[in-house]
Amino acid sequence: MIVIVSNHTPEERIADLVRVIENAGNQAHISRGTERTVIGIVGQAEPKLAEQLRQMKGVENVVKITKSYKLASRDFHPEDTVIDIRGVKIGGGNLAVMGGPCAVESPAQIDEIARLVKAAGGQILRGGAFKPRTGPYSFQGVGVEGLVMMAEAGRKHDLLTITEVMTPDYVDICAEYADILQVGTRNMQNFDLLRKLGECGKPVLLKRGFSATYDEWLNAAEYILAGGNPNVMLCERGIRTFETYTRNTLDLTAIPVMKQLSHLPVISDPSHGTGRRELVETMSKASVAAGADGLIIEMHTDPDHSMTGDGVQSLFPDQFANLLRELEQLAPLCGKTFDTEKKEPAHFATWVK
């Protein structure tokens, strides 16, 4: 249930409404828009409470929300959420680009890739320190050492960092070194992990499960939001279908649908979404045209020898730089602002596709 009040309503009146809601055993979440303020009620809101609120001064309307996800719903929060991390804004018409390898392999590797991401105009360095793999004998990442390597590379090249966290036990250590914590597709419904991320407060990128419906995806986000962490991004990374030509099927429809259903920023992962290097650039641009607030793209200096074996979906540095130059031209046409003012000059001629 939501309570809609005018922005001209005095703060003391809003405080009275919150007091009534909380005295009835519910939580009140205030969302301030340009024209109205919405107070979301989380809990067992009885019809009697709705009638009481409807009659209070300053209340324009009380609306029952039937969706199982409340805080993630645009009904609760009509305006786009903008996540500001040290000046890098994600959501609200801004386009953010995250680039880097599937896994951190060595200090030299992640430092060079960070330099190239920065030079191309990217704002965020991605890299996995802990790697969930389908097979138990596959490379599982370098662990905490990888977090340290990536944090140092991020600081050196003035980039934010994002890394995947796999279990509740790893949340604190990952949050110590990374700016954004990523939940992988296999963990979208790891509810203990989601609850822990709700408590930590660090921005979270929540990838869609490879067989998850939109409703399941948004309810997973609700776990984090309900824990007190409002800084959640939704990431479409491809779903499992009957098609085998691509690694997954990138569901571009999910981007505008999520923008309709939710206020949370939507990120697209064309690397995992296709699994094919030659499709990443096209699907990146298609994602932006569909309304994505950002992209998370795999890029490697030597993808054919990547330790994870995911090199077939990783761009070469020159491809990554060329894509970002094209995004600079595309973003304004799609109503997006792509801030690449901090980029440094670089030469990519040595990198051969």
From TrEMBL:
SUPFAM superfamilies: Aldolase. Residues 1-67 form the DAHP synthase ferredoxin-like domain. It comes from the Bacteria. The keyword Nuclease does not apply. The keyword Cell inner membrane does not apply. Pfam families: DAHP_snth_FXD, DAHP_synth_1. Keywords: Transferase. One of its GO terms (molecular function) is 3-deoxy-7-phosphoheptulonate synthase activity. Its EC number is 2.5.1.54. Residues 82-330 form the DAHP synthetase I/KDSA domain. This is 3-deoxy-7-phosphoheptulonate synthase. It comes from Paenibacillus profundus. The gene is aroF.
